[in-house]
Write a structure and sequence with these properties.
It contains 20 helices and 15 strands. The protein has 491 residues and is α/β, with parallel strands linked by helices. Strands 10-9-12-13 form a 4-stranded parallel β-sheet, with helices on both faces. Strands 11-15-14 form a 3-stranded parallel β-sheet. Strands 1-8 form a two-stranded antiparallel ribbon.
Amino acid sequence: MKTFDNDIQLIKYEVIREVVKLTIKGTLDKEHKNLFKVLVPGPKPRTRCCIHKERAIIGERIEIAMGGNKKNKNVIQVINSACDECPIQRFSVTEACRGCLTHKCIQACPVGAIQSINKRSYINPNKCIECGKCKNACPYNAISDVMRPCRRACKAGALSFDENKKAIIDDEKCIQCGSCVYQCPFGAIMDKSSVVDVTNKLLKSKENNDVHVYAVIAPAIASQFTYAKLGQVVAGIKKMGFYDVIEVAIGADMVVQNETKEFIETIEEIKTMTSSCCPAFVSYIRKNYPELAKHVSSTVSPMIAISRLIKKADPLAKVVFIGPCTAKKMEIKQADIKGITDYVLTFEEVQAMLDAFEINLEECEELPLNNASIYGRIFARTGGLTEAVQHLVDTKETLVEFKPISCDGLIECEKALKLLKFNRSNGNFIEGMACEGGCVGGAASLRHGLKDKNEVNKYGKLALEENVNDLIKSIKIEKIDMHRGKNFMFK
């Protein structure tokens, strides 16, 4: 039985499912403006104060499910009508205030937002700029900090608020990790969707053989769709009209082979290399540590590697990546790799599409999945890439010592990058994963939890090949360009 972590995921699923249904019928353009009435029939609201507001929010969700604001290039978009339920006053004085004579909080405030009333401090929310200096100055720790969940979730510091207290995303800082999407308690932030374009491609491919639409599924799928067997998930995806279903873990095997070679050949010169698989991690370096560009591996991500392989073998191919990552939606738009992977769908979106196509995974036959190595499959979790590189380094006759640092989440990535910036890194290879837990912790997962890592390990052990080099030889991979374009870090 399919389940979601919360009602926000359920509502998002319902919106996307209904949008895909209308796309299949061919009536989306005509009927989408009244779709909010189907999703919120009334007369009472389901989650909000009134049916009118709920329908307005659903209307915005429908637009984002259809591709969102075309003028806004960011794939993460704020739903303005939904963003109004959080506390508007971040800092407030609690009962712990002793009315001390030094008034350190008043002295610390740079905008004069604090005054003493009846010997107790009071913060004027209309003047407060949420700098936090008063909280740091208070000797009694009497000032509470109620930070909005979206802002707390954004480790890249890309979220702020306008004069109406609505969330604003700074596109120059946003790395599209999707943490704000998953953590907002009111679902006021959503990732743009390509379900309409993908559905139309699938329908077109059924009419003629001029287009072959491939689904490439991330190894994190091992922790998803747990109500069905993996072979049934493969069958269900193919039943929607995909020409074939291929696992991205094969691309991961290609990546680890190339990245290990790059590490051995360049490490003496650059001293420390960082991974390049996680697009949010690479984007964070680009935007916050551009001086570290030379340290970033030039190897493409597994998604791009497998897409290049497919398109070299099949000139009619269109490739759709399926995974838990919202940052992948931005990665495919980057100048030097644009057009290699055509679309990105999340696990949330695929579940909605399966139901729109009326496909019950539990009733599907089991189909085999292309076999990658153990190491390609465990890329889905933190430490997987490190283990894979270590495995290959150990098989090569080299004097190069491999000293890895595995970063679990953006906070750990920030620490490692700061040390690297000041030449104080105690390792020579940094594996950066923006999401805690790795890809299995992706914002657009169907489910999150501690079980995910174990599921990926089990999935890895099902691989027929253990050695990456043996896997590459067994599937007879032709020579594929495994590198990004020149100066890709600054594009």
